[in-house]
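ARCHIVE CARD
Drawer: 12
Card no.: 0347
Subject: one protein chain, sequence and derived structure
Cross-reference: see card 0346
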Amino acid sequence: MATRSRSITGRGLLAVLLLAFSGGLEAQEVRALWVTRWDYRSEADVRSLIERAASLGVGRVLFQVRGNASVFYPSALEPWAAELGSADPGFDPLAVALEEAQRRGLALEAWINVMPLWRGTKPPADSNHAYLLHPEWRVVSESGKPQQRNEHYVCGNPVRQDFRAHVAGIAAEIATNYAVDAVHLDYIRYVLDLEGEDFSWDAQSLALFGGDPKEQPEGWLCFKAEQVTGMVAEIRAAVRAARPACRLTAAVFAPAAARVKVGQDVESWVRQGLVDALYPMCYAETEQDYAQRLAESLPLGGDSVPVIVGIAAGRHADPAQTFLQIETARAQGAAGVALFSYSAFFPSPDQGALGQAPEPSRDARAGALRRFFGEP
């Protein structure tokens, strides 16, 4: 299509031609789609969304099964998600998604939010929810107060060994019971509070740090990064012990300064062999911002870990902008792209779903992506 030929020049054109000559772009690059927990409510929804994802020409689905300490599969460790009525819905969303993905030759990664304990201003209705059972897990602000409920996430504290072990147990449970290609980590970082407060100033963290964070701000950031890395390592070990073939991947911030701020020392994860693929979220509306985020995130994987560029397709009114960003990632050597998210291309049962777009633009975007990827 015209958009492709217009936006690939120079080395970018050469890279694309070499990939095509060596077996085709479809065989060489990862094409992934994030599917959020708001995108399904019934078994029919799950079967339909996997079929629709396949129709776009993607080969990998990142299927969310844990949002905030509740899950979308039968678990011995956490209750059913509130989005499913906090009760057994009569089907297993993860099992159905995996069955449909395997039938269509798609890879499926089980996407879990790591740190969030709850979301929203009202407490969970389920008395067995970790937010209620373990108030000590919450991060603590500089004022000494546990993080309060808000319109976004209340998060757990990675310095706590019991919290780490709990989340590692969730990852191991998934790897044990489902032949997913990977467990995909999101929100594997310290929370960014809506009011800008710094976390976590709890007694245990301050004692382990052994100083005043205000007097040693760089050391404090390093300390927090070590806690997040330690949590990644424990999840990695748990997944490997459960099923060695199951991979571990992670969505991470693209800007380097943002990673430092939230304790994502991704370079250490790569050096220590803790992750099998990285998905930097290079969400940007302008090409200048996108180019900067690519420059700060593409080198993260070094020579050993694939870097799959996250693109916020739902933010682009014109699909051509999405295609330009895909081509730029290709030309700069990315292992592939991941598109956020399903509801940018298809209707979601939850009208408040992240990335939900009006129907005409969804249809146009989906059709354009099929043509771009060469699907019938």
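Annotation on reverse: The two ends are 14 Å apart (CA to CA). Residues 1-27 have pLDDT under 50 and may be disordered.
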